[in-house]
Write a structure and sequence with these properties.
single chain; five-stranded mixed β-sheet; 5 helices
Amino acid sequence: MSEVALSEVALSMVRRDITFDHSQIHIKNLRLRTYIGLNTDEQTKLQDVVISIRVDYDGRAAASEDAVEHALNYRVITKQVIALVENNRFLLLEKLVFDVLSLVLSFDGVKHAAVEVDKPHALRFADSVSLTMAASRS
């Protein structure tokens, strides 16, 4: 028996004993610039934000069939997040996080998502201030 056939037999044996509940994609530390803040200087000067996104979805079909058409396209999600953040202005961190979270949840197959946005140098003696929101599709 070839190595490929052996590994397929081993995988099929393992799969019988596993219950998959979800898959997670993590987009970590997406560094963007946008207008965010209440102060006049914050509203006139681009500022750094660092965005991390966790997406839960059912990846079983993509995994079992090795089929790209069943996978969640994180590149498309990322490009849309970049466009949203860079082409808008935000007074509050809450609004930015909520808008990104809403966008991520709009993709088919997304069951749950969490978004954290860091605003570096927002406070004098802190590395950053961050806000996290999470939501599930009903």
